[in-house]
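User: Hey, my collaborator sent me this sequence without any context and asked if I could get a structure. I don't really work with proteins. Can you help?
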Amino acid sequence: MIKKRNFLITMGIVALNLFSLNYGTAQEEKENSLVLPDITTIISQEEILITEEAIPDFSGALPENLNTDTLPKVSDTENLKKDEISLQEESKENSSLVFLEGEVGLGWPYVFDTNFSLYQFGEDPFSVNFIYDSFGGYGKHSQDMGFFDTEIEMETTKTFITKNSTLDLAASYKKQDLGLQGNSVVFDDINRQTVFASLGWTLPFEKGFELSMNIDNRWFSRFAGYAGDNLQNVVKDENVALSLFETQPNINLSWQKEKLKLSLEGNWLGGFFFNSEEEMINRSQGNFYATLNFPRLNFETSIGIVYVHNGDKEKQTNLIFPFSLSTSVNFKLPFSEQDANLSLIGGLNSKSIDLFLLEKNNPFTLFSEKQIVANSEQTDWFGQTAIFVPIKEFVELGLVADFRKTAFENGILQTQQDEQFNSVTGLFNSKEVDSTRLFTDISISVNFTSFTANFAWNNQWIDKTPGQPTTSLIASLSFTTEKNWGLKLKLQENLGSENDKVPVLDFSAFIKPSEKTKILFTVTDTIKLVTGKDRIFIEPYIKQGGNISASVQFMY
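Assistant: No problem. I've predicted the 3D structure and written it out in structure-token form, which is a compact way to encode the shape of the chain:
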């Protein structure tokens, strides 16, 4: 299913928290609840900019994904960008112009997928989005036996533009509900929900100065469904229920003149657990950034200081000095009119964990309050490189490499897969580990007028991530005609001692009855669908495998 994520979004939360914005960065690309999101390569103007966020982050318990189709499809992206620019220009001419996008899909077994986006550009921009995904019955298993997953997201943003300043408001609500597939003697399912809310203000001054301030707030809750009052003590003893509130005010002062930009930033993160004896999360950070841009070359550097006052102070390093150095260069090649791009970045990265994202990527793992406080900071030495090479006008080669090594014993939290899961909760225990990881992605894309072929080879080296393949081989073919119909076939083979070796074969076809409407037919994980066998997620859990679905996408 196509997920429109170009906008922060949704309805229900405005009433819940009017004064607030997304906590942290907009991170999660929407996929099925047990499938991790793809790596994103950002295309800006004529150059390929592969940022730190675009590379799998091995400081989390699971990387964002071992990536599918990572090589940028320049022609498609350029068309999308031109469409977006034309929409913006059109909306500036008529600031009351409002756009509506949506998708509604149904399928078997028990598939319901819908999303709606309402937004406006121009002088009075806003966006509202609602997403609901529900899958029930995996393979031959019944939804009533706990084989289901549901995700709900509601997000909204509003910007007020005045002559002298800009005010941004945003809020969101996200919920994930997973059936425990009969693996707990007590619980039926595990629920996670979070509320983000933020208020931001930007004030430009003369001579290139700009002041921005924002305050981000987040509430995260985890609970499990169970039957009978006599089980309340079990719920408490197993520490499944959890409720965390965090707030993060931030201030940034920047100055820009021609090719040079300098900025100072400071923020504080405070958090506490409700009904808990754990101490408060207390984190302060200051950063200095410098950027120097030329037509074909740019440099960026940052240096900061982080103070963390929580956890096991005899073990954890409380004072950290993160830094980074990066460069990106565009250069001509004799066999292509399009620029090639090389980017390098390295340094020391330190960040606080995003609990909702951590648990979303580890859906059957229990992270305790004590662990979260004691290991709230994740610090890594890191180095990344990315290269994009066009050949003629129709072949594109890409290489991404990402190296990370735990620093100062501020390791990552991950699933303790080598131990039997807790039969009471039905969840795996977690642990903090120091790790050294290397991820590589080699990809090639071939683009003709109506035909596109993509190939990728992804690898994890050194320390491995539980639940993720060591190697992924991906191939996809797509064909689109000028008569508004098209086909796509995708094959992915995941290799590794813990992975299901049966290839994932997906097929989709679409037809456009009109410029604003598309009908999409999809078959996912075809082999598992035909055989009715389970696709293993992490023993003893399976994930939603093959299904057939049809959806209608529209834009007005």
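In plain terms: Residues 74-93 form the longest helix (20 residues). You can pass these tokens on to your collaborator as they are.
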